[in-house]
Amino acid sequence: xxxxLLEDPHEVEKSGPLNVxxxxxxxxxxxxxxxxxxxxxxxxxxVFYREPPPPTAPSSGWGPAGSRPESSVDLRGAALSHGRxxxxxxxxxxxxxxxxxxxxxxxDQESELRAWRRALRAVIERLERE
Length: 130
Ligand code: I3S
Fold this sequence. Notes:
There is one protein chain. The protein is of the alpha+beta class and 130 residues long. The protein is built from one helix and eight strands; from the N terminus they run E-E-E-E-E-E-E-E-H. Strands 1, 2, 3, 4, 5, 6, 7 and 8 form an eight-stranded antiparallel β-sheet that branches. The radius of gyration is 14 Å and the shape is globular. The two termini are 23 Å apart. (1S,3S,4S)-1,3,4-triphospho-MYO-inositol (I3S) binds at residues 31-32, 34, 87-89.
């Protein structure tokens, strides 16, 4: 389902390119498949797009109007951890959601990954207080 956030770009807290792989689905381990993605953090969701938005798109960070996210996950109750034990790549972040979906996010830019970690932590903590 397309997040209602598409209509409310003000809720986008962060977006940008990351390398992503899903490593578990519903608690079941998956084979890694690293791929570049355009990732947006908005509301209580982390949304994955295959392509970045075109330069003509509003600066909200979303893909083109009506573009479909590849997938999205609910961050309510999610756990964040350093992913260094799960990958040989540098600057890796591990996310585990309540239903047991697990992702690794990676950037070659340490500052970028740190910014994502901060932003994700802030959203997860806000959801805990709600
Ligand atoms: O955790 P793993 O199994 O060492 O992850 C590596 C593998 O998934 C590998 O794929 P194949 O084993 O299917 O060839 C990937 O190419 C690597 O990128 C994975 O390791 P890193 O350390 O890059 O997450």
